[in-house]
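User: Hello, can you help with two protein structures?

Assistant: Certainly.
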Amino acid sequence: MTTAQDKLSIVTHEVLGQRIVRVAGQIDSVTAPQFEKYLADVLGQGRRFGLDCSGLAYVSSAGIRVLVSTAKRIRGMEGRFEMFALTPMVTRMVEISGLTSILSIRVSEQDTLEALERA
């Protein structure tokens, strides 16, 4: 799925029985609504997934809001949402926003798969 004039690409894969959502490009005020809808659709299919952020070049406050609302929603479902492979820019945005205690962040896909398996 490519959205908002090719600014954002989102693809879901199954890896070792777990859903991994790979996001690339930018999550900003233009693309955040499509990103939010995509994640809502993913949540409609199950309560656990990993979010690969290795291709994510930029996240605005609108994108951070989507990530936080998704994390809160999935916690209410007693599910698990793990972000991994954050780029330095995305890591900085999460840290500046003070969200390291709200968002579950892993270093690698392998770490994420293990955490999802334990959930």
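That covers the first. Now for the second protein you mentioned:
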Amino acid sequence: MADIAYLMSFRVPTQNVFQAEVALADLYYSIGEEEFSKGGVETFAIHRVVGDPGAYQIYEQYTNAAAGRHGTGPLVRAAWSQVLARMVAPFERVLLDPLGVFGLEKSIGSDVVGDECWRYTIRVSPEDAGQLEVIFDDIMDAMEIDEFSFGEVKSYTAHRIVGDVGRYVMYEHFTALGSGKHATGANLLIVGRKQMSLIVTPFERLQLEPLFALGLKHAAYGKTAPGSRSSAHR
């Protein structure tokens, strides 16, 4: 499991979406060339936020060594400067402490057209944080029975948000079939109700449209492997 993770949110002007996605594609391939081959980049996934034109999310997972190297190479620095130049406001990048991970691999796999990703954020009272983390273990056990064995969950990760006790984020990646069936099984419904009983503010669940990703099981959203710039981004 990764040592460290980040979730980044940012926005670009809607009239500049194409230029921004060209810059994001260059960032993706630059990380592939300078970082992924060295190991330790568990995930680097770039998404549009569905229904919110110009909004993007980047989900990152690293070993400590890879986190220390991230962004230090000349290609990545140059590509990131082009992404920054297209943002309309400062980005938010929160540090995550991984609690549980299913389905992530270091290898690059096949195209995942038709898959769905979600970001699910919840808050509980700080005094309930320990109880919620026990429930996360129960959720993973329930999903093992209800969902994981059928192969429709590509990845499912749960994290604390560092520095904000009681706030948690889940990053979920399903096939279209898996997304439709998620949380309908008897075991997960039971433990899900326990989780919902602890939430103190309305949860946020954003649907994400994959653009490019490194390191997700079965995932290479670009049409060629990292390190090759021969294909145009979508």
